[in-house]
Amino acid sequence: KMQRYLLSNSVGPGDLPNLKELNTNEICKIWSGTSRYIRRQLLRKRAVEIGIGVFALVSEHTRVEEGEVLPVERPVFIMSKSLKAFYNLECDETKIPDETSIVHLNFEEIAAKTFFRREIVEHCIRETLLCFAGALRDNKEVEFSFK
Length: 147
Fold this sequence. Notes:
InterPro entries: CCD81, CCDC81_HU_dom_2, HU-CCDC81. The chain is α+β, with helices and mostly antiparallel strands. Helix content is about 45%, strand content about 20%. It has helices at about 1-10, 15-20, 25-45, 80-85, 105-115, 120-135; strands at about 45-50, 55-65, 70-80, 100-105.
């Protein structure tokens, strides 16, 4: 649903009514709670679908001293193929391991841990993603970091 909206509509101020009601600190608290939720799922070896892509762990091998190779898992964000194509974005192809289960954001759990109503959490996340999609569409540089 989110992806279809991002692919067909431009984002205007009227599309972000809930986000405008929150202050920066409140938005940061919600995204911090979202980040913690994603981290917990990654630690359980689950990938997390957020509407525009998936956070997952991928295995890599890194060289350590004297040519020794050490397997490591690295968190990545894999944008959905349709969004990459629509916005004409170049990204490395990363594949989620077949045995990885994929879960969606649990707005109820995030809300309980951040002390916001479920609806506020869901709207904040969706509207923030709409803002980023609009920035991508307009070729603006964006940065969004998680703890």
